[in-house]
Amino acid sequence: MKKGTLAATALAVGAGATASTAAAQQDDEGEVVLTGSDYYPDVDADVLAELETGTRDTILENFEETFDPVDDWDVYIVQFDIGAGTVLGHLFVDEDEADVSEGDTVTLSGDASFRDAEANLVEVSTGGGGASDDEDEDEDEDEDEDEDMGADETEDDGMDDETEDDGMGDDESDGA
Questions:
Q1: I want to staple 44 with a disulfide (CB 3.0 to 4.6 A). Which of 3, 49, 65, 129 is the partner?
Q2: Which structural domain range is residue 99 located in?
Q3: DSSP class of 67
Q4: Domains identified in the chain, total number
Q5: Which of 80, 81, 78 is nearest to 93 (CA)?
Q6: What is the pLDDT of residues 149-174, one digit of tens each?
Q7: For strand 31-35 and strand 44-50, is the pairing parallel, antiparallel, or unpaired?
């Protein structure tokens, strides 16, 4: 019983350390800007594409001095994972504030503040979101192992051996 309690405590401490590390990593990601209608706190956003320079400039010029100088900013198309469906939005990233690129998944934190209330622009810190690639690979390996075990159990259930050994086919031909 004492060993079980000790193991559970160690597991809880390890999980707490992992959560603290994950929170620290999220703080290191930086801050991004988005419109208030694109803000979903604590939701993963998949970065789908970076807009080309001309398109970026056209969008950012609409916000006048908010994104000055324009050359320091990148604009990304993101897809929010809210469960019910696909929601697309824009993510404005200052190159000096956050490291975001196509294919990334970021999580918008709940500590947003207005960068420009009149334009409905919100500034929010981000973190790495969802499962890491290593965790995805581990889950895939576990699923493959489960499938393999199911196939092995089918082969080893002994059904084929009983059919061959029962001699049913020999008795029927003798009785006819």
A1: 129
A2: 29-156
A3: G
A4: 1
A5: 78
A6: 554 444 455 555 554 555 555 555 45
A7: unpaired
